[in-house]
Design brief:
alpha/beta, Rossmann fold, 7 strands
Length: 220
């Protein structure tokens, strides 16, 4: 209960929601265990469940930022059987590990294509897997480059495509509820959010799930 008498969800509510969820595929727990010791950034589990709901009817997804494949797996397992994902990450060691986790979850290799390059370099050259059109994109890579990723993706989106971006609350720094420091990505994320939410070609909002998910529908 807030001081003004209004209500906001707490730990008990989160625990109840978790109790309703279907059992996780063991591959998710394996990725969580692998990420923890080395600090590899992965999506919050609650945000993963939201991502899965958003991906449920999407057949052609582009992901910017693979890491070890956690968010990719949420989308792949939710997609229709004929769904495909192309995911971009320059770190071959991480994407090789990701492929192992996807296989463990029963995801066929031809369902997910990996582009091992920095995303902006990959978008700048002819790449058949990145030609689109995409009906969903998920952005979770270098925060200072979010706006440039989206700019490169816009011509590859079909009308009605979903644009989803993680970490847009940035631990409270974008809203100003926590202090930021120059060069920590806060100003770029804030400008990105303001640009997308204020763009009449999008209908979007920010969900306070995990570290913040921006979700917007492309309707040019």
């Amino acid at each position: 209960m807030r001081s003004d008498g209004s209500w906001s969800p707490g730990e008990a509510d989160a625990a109840w929601i978790e109790s309703l969820a279907r059992p996780l595929d063991p591959a998710f727990a394996a990725i969580e265990r692998a990420a923890r010791p080395t600090g590899i950034p992965i999506l919050d589990r609650d945000a993963g469940r939201v991502l899965a709901v958003l991906a449920a009817d999407r057949r052609r997804i582009c992901e910017v930022g693979t890491a070890i494949g956690y968010s990719t797996l949420w989308m792949a397992l939710a997609q229709p059987a004929d769904g495909r994902i192309v995911t971009i990450d320059p770190d071959t060691e991480r994407t090789t590990a990701a492929r192992v986790h996807w296989r463990a979850a029963g995801v066929a290799d031809d369902r997910i294509s990996i582009v091992n390059e920095p995303a902006l370099a990959a978008f700048a050259r002819p790449e058949p897997d990145l030609a689109g059109p995409f009906d969903m994109v998920f952005i979770d890579a270098l925060k200072d480059e979010y706006a440039a990723y989206l700019e490169a993706l816009l011509p590859r989106l079909e009308r009605g495509a979903l644009v989803v971006a993680d970490n847009v609350l940035w631990g409270g720094r974008t809203s100003g509820s926590r202090p930021s420091t120059p060069g920590d990505g806060t100003s770029s994320l804030r400008a990105f959010c303001e640009s997308v939410i204020g763009d009449p070609r999008f209908s979007g909002t920010i969900l306070p799930v995990g570290d913040g998910l921006l979700v917007a529908t492309w309707r040019p």
